[in-house]
Amino acid sequence: MSRGLAPGHVKKRRRKRSESATGPDCRLRRAYACAMARRPRLELAGGYFHVTSRGNRRQPVFTDRRDRQRFLVLLDDVVTRHQWRCHAYCLMGNHYHLVLETPEANLSSGMWHLNGLYAQAFNRRHEVDGHLFQRRFHSILVESDWHMLELTRYVVLNPVRAGVCPHPGDWAWSSYRATAGIGHVPRLLTVDWLLGHFGPTRRQATSGYRAFIDEGRRPIREHSDR
What we know:
This protein is α+β, with helices and mostly antiparallel strands.
């Protein structure tokens, strides 16, 4: 201790340093740093992913047919450019689901283009500004064929479990009709892998797929995605 410096002053100076380390400004800086720090996205060549993206504050991201058609056009372009394979999709009101296979490790760059370009088009058309989507997209790595099959069923049953329609075939904005053989297969959609699990011929496969989806329409206790 320095000569002539009272112990009380020493304690006071130390308390000031402690307060400066935990004061409001420091806590704000730490909170900001935590908010800005983002965990890196899992990028995997040959990976299968369940991808979802929701509207900011759960606001609608699709308001009508024109919005949904625009999104599918952009999805087709991104799938082609990034050489993805889309095995299932469903566009709801305030969110969407995609089941994607990425031969190259480029999931984040493709999703950045898809959400960014669609948000620009949406805001321009509806004359609004600000963030359309909530944070970044959410992705889960699919780790088995069983998981993949259950996931593709879950995705196309979203409108049914949300009470939007009684049957997945009634919802025009999912991959169900194309995969089930009752609708046109768009270029963005890959159906061969999925149908290959349900029969050796296209007729048998689509029939087996429809039966598989119908099994999932039975009452369940799991939370439905609205």
